[in-house]
Amino acid sequence: MKQAGIIGFGNIGKKLYEKLLENGWKIVFIVTSEHVFIGNIDVPKDKSENWLNYCHDVDVVFLAIPTFDDGRTAFNYITAVIEKGIPVVTCEKGALSNYFAGLKPILNRIGYSATVGGGSGMIHFLQRRFFSGIREVHAIVNSTMNYIWDDLRMGNPLGHIVEEVKRLGYAEPGEKDPIKIILGEAGPDVTKKTSILFNLCFRPKTILHAKDIKVVLTDEMVRQAITEAMSRRFVVSFERDGNFKEKDNDIVAFTHHIEGWVISGGFKRIDNPLIARLCNSATWVNNAVLTVEGEDGSGGIYLCVGPGAGASPVATAMIRDAEGLL
Question: Which residues cross the membrane (predicted)?
Fold first, then answer.
């Protein structure tokens, strides 16, 4: 019987617990923000700061916490577990996006596919395609905004949509202002995922930190994108310097130049055929990545699509990672 520990017991942690038991795993310990639980999840065994004392007799530890800071907390969890010789599977984005240099030597002990794209598998897809002569990549990496813009296109009011995504667990419950929620998704969430994709899939010599990507999106720009919801989606693009052309009609959240690549994110028009193909494949909470390969696209266009949000697909992706590590 495979044995696991779970750190974090929110929506994803609870779904992991449920799915692991269904698949015949034994849960040795659970760590919440306050306590450690052993066996009985209703009766705490110890304070959470003593969690490492219980990190033994497990095959893998699942890290299912939100990003509390810039990723340092998650980084400390990951390195502490791996120092004990135990692999870690994570869905937290801060550690890989801001502390990649410290994790790079131990990546073979980390399952990370759920950090970007949820259950879509886009990280491994892009890693496999990178050596096929990629000249540009376009990706939908934020399920919350994709869901919102799909619903706006149906004529539903923004306030109602945002309440729905919070109820479904696709957005943080604390923030009430819909514009601020969107800015939070377009900024901290997307920049972390962009950093992770670049560092894991593009094999750069220079590490891209999420905090190095400067977001210039304003309330007014978001409102414009809402008004033009029929013709826009939030897309992140990676284009080689020679292929990049700035488009005046895009609502740009960020542009970053690194190692011959231009990375841009924003509310892009879907009358661009490539963007249209990407967006038509990724409705509601689906995420997608599209690659254009070869000179002038002669190598073809390849697409990966799958569920980007929701506790169930994320938990499933994490368990798949764990199986691959063991």
Answer: none
Q: What is the CATH number of the domain that holds 176?
A: 3.30.360.10
pTM above 0.85, yes or no: yes
Same domain, 201 and 302: yes
What percent of the chain clears pLDDT 90, i.e. is strictly above it? 89
Q: Which residue bears the tokens 């009609």?
A: 249
Q: Are residue 107 and residue 132 in the same domain, yes or no? A: no
Q: What are phi and psi of 230, to 5 degrees?
A: -65, -25
Q: Phi/psi of residue 321, each to 5°?
A: -60, -45
DSSP β-ladder status, 134-140 and 232-240: antiparallel
Q: Do 143 and 194 share a domain, yes or no? A: yes
Question: What CATH number should be reported for the domain holding residue 11?
Answer: 3.40.50.720
Q: Are residues 151 and 250 in the same domain?
A: yes
CA distance 78 to 109: 10
Statement to judge: residues 144 and 85 lie in one domain = no
Cα separation, 140 vs 233, in Å, equals 8
What is the pLDDT at residue 242? 86
In three-state secondary structure terms, 83 is helix
- Cα gap 113→306, rounded to integer Å: 12
* Residues 220 and 253 reside in one and the same domain: yes
Structure-block tokens of residue 216: 């210039």
Q: State the average pLDDT for the chain.
A: 95
If residue 275 lies in a helix (H) or strand (E), which one and from where to where?
helix 273-281
Count of other CB atoms within 10 angstroms of residue 188: 18
Percent of the chain with pLDDT over 70: 99
Beta strands in 73-215, from DSSP E residues, in sequence order: 88-90, 110-111, 134-140
**Residues spanned by the domain of 76:** 3-118+312-325
Edge-to-edge strand ranges of the sheet holding 251-258: 251-258, 261-269, 232-240, 134-140, 286-293, 300-307
For residue 293, what are its two tokens?
């390969």
Task: Tokens 């692999």: give the residue.
Answer: 87
Q: How far is CA 315 from CA 17, 43, 96, in A?
A: 9, 24, 18
pLDDT of residue 173: 62
How many whole angstroms separate alpha carbon 198 and alpha carbon 185? 18
